[in-house]
Amino acid sequence: MSRNRDPRSGQPRKAKTKSQNVSHQSDTLHSPHPRVMEVILHLRQIINEFILQLESRHEQEDLEQEEQQHRQNIRNQEAILIHLMCEVVNLLHSGASSSLELQLPRLSLVSKGGAGSGQQAQSSREPDQLSHQLSDSKTAFISCYLSNRGIDFSALYQSNLQDFIAYKGDKYHEDKNTLGFINFGLSENKHCIDLLTERLSQSDMNYIDDDLLQYPDWKGHAFLREEVARFLTYYCKAPDLLDPGNVVVLNSSLSVFLTLTMVLCDPGDAFLIPTPLYSGFTLTSHLYSKVELIHIHLQSKMDTQTFQLIMDKLEKALLEAKFKGEKVRGLVLCNPNNSLGNIDTLDSLKEYLEFAKRHNLHVIIDETYMLSEFRASIPFHSVLNMKSLPDPNRTHVIWGTSKSFGISGFCFGTLYTHNKEVVSAVGAFGFLHGIAGLTQHKLCRLLQDGEWIDNVYLPTNRSRMQVAHRYITNKLKTMKVRFLSRGSGLYIWVNLKEYLDPCTFEEEQLFYRRFLDNKLLLAPGKAYMCKEPGWFRLTFTDKPFRLKVAMQRFSEALTHKKQNWIEKQLENALVESVSSPSTRRSSSSSSSSSSPSSSLSFSSSSFVNVDTSHF
Amino acid sequence: MATLPKKESRAPNTCLGLDTNYGDGLEREHSRKPDHKRPEHYGVGDPTTPFSSDGSHLSSRGRISKWFWDLAEEGYRTYHMDEYDEDKNPNLSQSDMLQVKPSLLQYPDWRGHLFLREEVARFLSFYCRSPAPLKPENVVVLNGCASLFSALATVLCEVGEAFLIPAPYYGAITQHVYLYGNVQLVCVYLDSEVTGLDTRPFQLTVEKLEVALQGANAEGVKVKGLILINPQNPLGDIYSPGELREYLEFAKRHELHVVVDEVYMLSVFEESLGYHSVLSLERLPDPQRTHVMWATSKDFGMSGLRFGTLYTENRDVATAVASLCRYHGLSGLVQHQVAQLLQDRDWINQVYLPENHARLKAAHAYVSGELRALGIPFLSRGAGFFIWVDLRKYLPKATFEEERLLWRRFLDKKVLLSFGKAFECKEPGWFRLVFSDKAHRLRLGMQRIRKVLTGTLRVAEDPPSSRTQEPRGQHI
């Protein structure tokens, strides 16, 4: 995993070279890879150091602490050696495969190389490496029929959706399959599916006429675009009526995001985006549009607010990107935020938009989670609510029904932008992302029924969300688990750092697997490019009976993990006491203080609601 | 369909005339001159020409897509009759269609709901007369064949690689494979003249495929596959099992993928033709490289339903296409409706297909009768919705400009035909006439055509001065 990193300095390479590395693999197949020489030189150096280290062993054997340090160093170097060797083989392989059409399985590190091998290997694991995920998962998927990009897509698809498919095949059912999977990771609002099913079964939904069966206007049927404009005017509290001519209707919010990146960027152009971010953005920009996402890492420990995007960070990220020669075309925002559940205030929104205007940046703002806020004290403001947009021609709003109405299977997303050129260009992609006329009719009826939405759907949805949210957060509190949740979206952003020893993304992945063993799917923070290991996204919008079972399993997994940790500690202590009984006392006390997991103290004081101001 | 804008002006550059008689580079240089009228056997499309930048906020690919859009806007309303027959509306409003289940409203398997894939497999097994039952796991469901072309091009080819396609062809494919995939088409030009061993006009032969493939290779264009449309659009032709096998063997020899578009599969109204789906072949030469597509847009006249399906035995390809399905998905409710529709074999066999074929046959008989009466030559073998009409004698000069002017005159008389250039036909003067419309509208249409053509003969003798206008249109 340390292939994108200089093993000696431990400094991460620049984001740019990372992605270039990967593309090089496929682009420059015919010439000998320059990286090969570089890596082989490294390899030689590390081997030298390694041998030196082994030789020096005898001289240092006397001191216990130094001995430990010594072992650690050797393990580190071993890990690096394995990494480098794998890389050489992979590079040679990629060169060979082009000319011979010979597809050998690539070497992969899986988790062996780095597991527990100390700080260097551990710090080399970075969250923002889709490329890594790719090169790792590629090992499992090689095909002589597909293009390189086809292989990329399949590998990603399989690595990402494997567990989802397992879940699909073995879903929990209260009577029929009590041992089945419960999905805490999937972003679905299952609370009101009964209401939607009922509403969509009503007779007004089933109108059919010729127009609906013919090729539609690729921007969407006029009747639907008019309805969308009315709907957004009302629910976004737009100061003036929104114009149906600014609406394009496609088959999901993600398709809208895709087409926007396609028409605003050329391959290699970049967008700024705060992390944690919606994983769909990463996939989309990688799969089809080849747009680079420059991550602005938000962190949990900030002076002002946790995971809050601040202007300094924006300015700095832009400056750095420009300095590196990136062509930054815009900024992607998600409000209410997917994964964090944050809501941006009107003032901060305005600041972001002003920032974008100053630098001639487009702003793609995904408001798919609007109407999912469940706490009146934290109101949601759409950008369409503003009196005047700082730069209307560069502000593009995305909305869809998948979250607001919990009907992801309906496949509907919409764009609202004042920029007519963007409307036409996105519309041109309509034939690849079209929705059935019959579906458009149903959507129109649904959006039209303001009475049902205001008096039945929204109040019910809100109260059910509140109940579920309270249930889960109370459970988490009794388990003394930290979390973030600001009253919107379908998620609670859970901090399980304390359970990771050491606190690495590898451990996060292992913990994810442990949940999976307990038939519980959670979404690990790495999937959202979170910079800090240990965060998980927990979707709480499910039926109470499933939530109850899910929380039991969750709690079991934590308990199990805790026990493991204690056992491990005991074991360590035992080993130490056997090997050197004389230093027993001092070593046991030092192990608890010097252990990297000293934060792993399950004291009652460890529960901190990171963002109490909003509770 | 949209031809790309540069095509007309850049034709001499992009369609290099590789003449079998003059194989060397020098002669090829000559053939680039527009005046040289030498037969072209293939041509590499180049959709990457810079587009005029009227969209200041857009990236260059954004401008290309906007160009496609503007083009569509202009000719849009014109092609309804092509796609839809209002009387043949299947009964989607019957009660079995109206089921709403929670699972239909949630995230599906991206390949499509299993119940639908099972139904598609059964349906295709039956109507394609496959020797063994087809398997649901080889089925991927998307929101239309355009998406399917796009996805297949993307996962089978690298940027800049190409598919062979016999021309004339359904021109929209150019756009389908280009927008996301950046894949080009290499035209295998077919001739109206029956030469050599050919038995009919515009006949595709392995020899022509070989020439085109070699030509593309010589130009450094990497060809990854071959697209076959069967029944053919716009020729209304079908390939015999023997021909199909030859093409597939050719592809196998060169390790090419074959994408077979069978969207007109159930629109073969001349029983005697004996249509054979590629899935009916006893043994496919290269099953791992053979990918079949079908949709409801033509055979059920429901382009607005947005349903298309891929059948391939290649799991890698199925998975790769499925990985793009989250951008090309269709609503669970529609999936339910399509499954119900495909299941209703009684209605399809006893009501829909006989009625559809009878109407197509009657309309075809009427239009072909009229054309004969006008003394207009045409091609049509009893499949699809169209007649490929030879209006070359109405062009004062055999140029695509004259072809467009004639098209414009039809438009002025409120009758819309698609000109051959839109199908990359290399001979100016061919038009596609869609006859799948109501009798009274057909009558009116034919009257207008008659009016234009009788007027044209006069015009041809005395050309008008105002010929600068560049008409553009969408032909789907």
From TrEMBL, chain B:
Per its record, how is this protein called by name? Answer: 1-aminocyclopropane-1-carboxylate synthase-like protein (Inactive)
Q: Name one GO molecular function term.
A: transaminase activity
Record-linked InterPro entries: Aminotransferase_I/II_large, Ethylene_sulfur-biosynth, PyrdxlP-dep_Trfase, PyrdxlP-dep_Trfase_major, PyrdxlP-dep_Trfase_small
List compositional bias (Basic and acidic residues) regions by residue number. 1-10, 25-43
The Aminotransferase class I/classII large domain, residue ranges: 99-435
- Give the GO biological process terms: amino acid metabolic process
List, alphabetically, the PANTHER family matched.
1-AMINOCYCLOPROPANE-1-CARBOXYLATE SYNTHASE-LIKE PROTEIN 1, BIFUNCTIONAL ASPARTATE AMINOTRANSFERASE AND GLUTAMATE/ASPARTATE-PREPHENATE AMINOTRANSFERASE-RELATED
Species whose genome carries this gene? Myotis myotis
The record's listing under Gene3D superfamilies reads:
Aspartate Aminotransferase, domain 1, Type I PLP-dependent aspartate aminotransferase-like (Major domain)
Instruction: Name the segments for region: Disordered.
Output: 1-60
- Annotated Polar residues bias: 49-59
Q: Which SUPFAM superfamilies match?
A: PLP-dependent transferases
Entry keywords, A to Z: Pyridoxal phosphate
